[in-house]
Specification:
alpha/beta; Rossmann fold; eight-stranded mixed β-sheet; 43% helix
């Protein structure tokens, strides 16, 4: 089922792009270019749900957005719609039993919605107090921080403006990194694992000196990010269909025009541009070390030797989750390839998330 958002900014489904990415991803004969063990099941679930529901409300659809979008669900059976296992089949069957559905599930949903609505109200009040000055400045500069494309349901209202929590976190992280990294001297951004594109969007809108972007992600996440960025930047986005057969991937236009090249991992060896800013938020933690090492080699190749190298890395608290690696391990791999030391710092705020922040500049 393919639908469109009727708001000012429209996110469109593109069946040809989705199919091309999906088919070519499965053709790759090395695991370096495929979803690693952490993302494997996530990717399968996302692929299934995109075909079923389209992108119209992907930021509020837990079967698409869980793990990278601003989605929250009060339905304990919402992830059982993709029947990959006997356990999920049983959960789905159980939720459809008339007595369970009417006496338990319905009451649970009503109670959960009440608690979630109250939580979001109190959270909005707290965040407005804590980040009033930051968002007053951002709103005066950008007018609208989050266009709410994709219909997020995990939102907060800060200084009177509603935004998804992904945009909130991206804005806060960028403001903290900006105290250590001068974004205003950069021209070309490279982001790996950008979720659905929120950070890249904010960087381009906050720092108009940055005009060129290499945006890399695994399939199907790249499909979502590509279509999202198209909904904001239109023809400035070059997608996989236009790049898949190009042997030497470069920027086409002059430095005054925004250009975003959306590529899957298997095209990185064909990229021939100079970058001066690299950004990664949490996705390195969720990759095999072999994949990080491969990306690090290309980072060393793509950085402009005539300009200062600038790297921003954010990691969530490492608690030994299966198929993830610790921030120090990631830093060690990057330092071996880039030949420069990273600095760890504490942000200028406290969200009680025990995250780790590193930069190179």
């Amino acid at each position: 089922m393919m639908t469109e958002n009727k708001a000012e900014y429209i996110i469109r489904d593109n069946v040809d792009l989705y199919n091309s990415l999906n088919i070519d991803s499965k053709k790759q004969n090395t695991m370096l270019f495929k979803p690693g063990p952490y993302w494997d099941l996530y990717s399968k679930r996302i692929e299934h749900e995109i075909l079923k529901s389209g992108l119209n409300d992907f930021r509020g659809n837990i079967n698409i957005g869980k793990g990278f979008a601003d989605v929250i669900s009060s339905d304990p059976f919402s992830l059982a719609r993709n029947r990959r296992s006997l356990a999920e089949k049983f959960d789905l069957w159980l939720s459809r039993m008339p007595l369970i559905k009417s006496r338990i599930v319905r009451r649970h949903l009503l109670t959960s919605k009440s608690f979630l609505d109250a939580m979001k109200t109190y959270r909005s009040e707290l965040l407005t107090i804590q980040f009033k000055d930051l968002f007053s400045e951002l709103i005066s500069k950008l007018e609208t921080i989050d266009h709410l494309i994709g219909k997020p349901n995990n939102t907060a209202v800060i200084n009177g403006q509603e935004m998804g929590m992904v945009f909130f976190r991206a804005a806060v992280r960028l403001s903290s990194f900006a105290k250590n990294v001068n974004f205003e001297t950069c021209n070309t951004l490279f982001e790996i694992g950008g979720g659905f594109g929120a950070t890249t969007e904010l960087i381009l809108r906050m720092y108009p000196n940055i005009k060129k972007v290499i945006y890399l992600d695994i399939s199907p996440n790249l499909y979502i990010g590509t279509q999202y960025l198209k909904s904001v930047f239109g023809d400035s986005v070059r997608d996989y269909l236009s790049l898949k057969d190009v042997q030497n991937i470069t920027f086409l236009d002059n430095d005054d025009k925004v250009e975003i090249l959306c590529i899957p991992p298997w095209l990185i060896s064909k990229v021939n541009v100079n970058i001066d800013l690299f950004y990664n938020s949490e996705s390195f933690q969720e990759m095999p070390s072999e994949s990080i090492n491969e990306y690090a080699k290309h980072l060393g190749r793509l950085f402009n030797d005539k300009k200062e190298k600038k790297i921003c890395l954010w990691f969530y608290e490492h608690t030994g989750v299966a198929n993830t690696i610790s921030p120090p391990e990631v830093i060690n791999i990057l330092e071996k390839n880039i030949k420069l030391p990273f600095k760890k710092f504490d942000p200028t705020f406290d969200l009680n998330d025990k995250s780790s922040w590193y930069y190179l500049a």
